[in-house]
Amino acid sequence: MNIDLFFQYIVAGITYGTIYAVVAIGFNIIYNATGIINFAQGEFVMLGGMTAVTLHQILPLPLAVLAAVIITMAVGAFIEIFFIRWLDRPSVLRMVIITIGLSILIREAGLHIWGEGVRALPYFTGSSETSIRLGGVFISPQVLWVVGISAVMVALLNVFFSHTLPGRQMRACSANRDAARLCGINAKNMVTLSFVLSAGIGALGGSIVSPITYVQYDSGAQLAIKGFTVAILGGLGNSAAAVGAGMILGVLESFSIAVLPAAYKDVISIAILLLILFVRPSGIFGSSEAARLSEF
Amino acid sequence: MRLIRLIAAAVILAVALAAAPASAADTIKVGAILAVTGPASFLGAPEAKTLEMMVEEINKKGGFQGKKVELIVKDSGASPEKALSFAKQLIEEEKVLAIIGPSTSGETMKIKNVAEEGRTILLSCAAAEVIVNPVAKYVFKTPQKDNYAVIKIFEQMKRMKISKVAVLSSNTGFGKAGKEQIEKLAPEYGMQLAANEVYDKAATDLTAEVTKVKASGAQAILNWSIEPAQSIVIKNARQIGFKGPIFQSHGFGNIKYVEAAGPAAEGVIFPAGRLLVTDALPKNNPQKALLMKYKKDYEGKFKEDASTFGGHAYDAMLILTRAIEKAGSTDKEAVRNAIENLKGVVGTAGVFNLSAQDHNGLDMTSFEMLTVKKGKFALLGK
Fold this sequence. Notes:
The structure holds 2 protein chains of 2 kinds. Chain A is mostly helical. Chain A is built from 12 helices and 2 strands; from the N terminus they run ααααββαααααααα. Chain A has a two-stranded antiparallel sheet. In chain A, a hairpin with a 2-residue loop joins strand 1 and strand 2. The longest helix of chain A has about 30 residues. The termini of chain A are far apart. Chain B has a 5-stranded parallel sheet, with helices on both faces. Chain B is built from 12 helices and 14 strands. Chain B has 2 domains: about 190 residues, Response regulator (Rossmann fold, 3-Layer(aba) Sandwich); about 130 residues, Rossmann fold (3-Layer(aba) Sandwich). Helices cover about 45% and strands about 20% of the residues of chain B. In chain B, a hairpin with a 4-residue loop joins strand 11 and strand 12. At the A-B interface, helix 1, helix 8, helix 9 and helix 10 of A face helix 2, strand 7, helix 7, helix 8 and helix 9 of B.
């Protein structure tokens, strides 16, 4: 394998990895605030992408994406308030079933609103055949957009969770809900906030990856599977770790295609995931002590 | 008092039950198992719309011998398992005269035996040659066979002096059947397969796959799938700087795939029925009038471009109605025998000449080689 080819596979891996990571970050936020996994996260991604494409018919691109993010955030808030807020200390299993049910509901609603066709936003710069050439390596500008926006997003999230009051309150709720309430934190509002935030991040992710992956009413489920894998692989709750794990998984998949028939791609990635989870159940970057304390 | 009420209820129920089959006997039941949603919705959705449109028109004209057609559409979502249970339901419970569909080859192969055992006519809208080879008594299909598509593509490659080709296909029935035909026919046409890769039908990015293809030194890419992935292949190949021609299967015959791939789709070469280039056909082409009518009706009613896939359902319904007219009855056996003897039926895919040995009835001339010019389908210049 020559050096150009090597880097071309790396680029392919980074493309896969960022798509996975964007979805994984959404999982982490709700997990941070509530200790549960929101299985409707993939549907937030779909909803964001679809809404942005629809709005782009009347609005310029940045406004369409912004509006799609806001609308999806509203949907996230609505879902939390109507389906989750009134539950008193729901068990993990119950939450899993509720969120899976919600994901089916959103998917079917998407089918009724948008039909079964695939859609996509236009490429943010250039077109579907534009690529930036670095020596013998080609990169689609959209990949750079996705990588850049994801990086900014992760940085902002880290600031939010470690340096702002609501962010720290959310973490407090995750660590110990009762203690947080004794300190005067409104735990229920924090959960709503986490749904709003993860819906917004999912929607932003869905919008920016749609030129690459396309978006369809049922594309959420497939994205969610890989996103969930990456969230677990990195260690639940840690967004920067999700990005790292996404890159590792993406690059592994890409190189598995280089040396083996492409059909084995998913076999390789899942086998590696299992291996890592046997050795480090808390994920590559997760702390094993923290994992022992959490209930999921 | 209670007893009387109970008896009254029972009587009403009995009358209602007796009345139901009586009204059903006045209609001709036609089932359809189509992938209206899911990964093959590009096929199933226009097929279902086409059938609804045609049945509406038939019933407006009074149906057949005073009987109206009752269309029962089942959405399989391209799942062979669902198709199987719907097939059983349509045959055993609804007792339909014929089933139109399924949309995909994988589903059709799953229910081929069920239709055969249930002695119910199956008019598949899927491409694979294995559907009608070996011939099953009750199983027919309307799209061109996939081996014709492969031959057409290889002939075109020869004209373009291409002998080293990379094959990509999706892991569906359609992709698998196409891959087998390519592997079988390649030596005959002196084609060397530099790469031969299978990808997941729900793939979202194929940069690594096309990188491998580029590294293999292939002169051209031949992709065989029906999912949005076929647009992704073109985009990724152009993004990593693959300059050679890209060939697609006849599964590319929906303008939405071209729109999805944007400018990267320019110059893609693929075989397809003439529906996509109706306007460019010469006046004396036997299919022109029918294609114009179908396009006008479909596009007027649904406000979207007609595709060859909807055309396959059109042909299935057309063959069925011709056979009912010819048989002069709606007896399953009589209609089946009539289908087998239909000759010169002008459909959207081509001119059908069916026989006991050929349950497809189309020949190589039903395909044209097309390309994409300025975001539109165009006939490929020789």
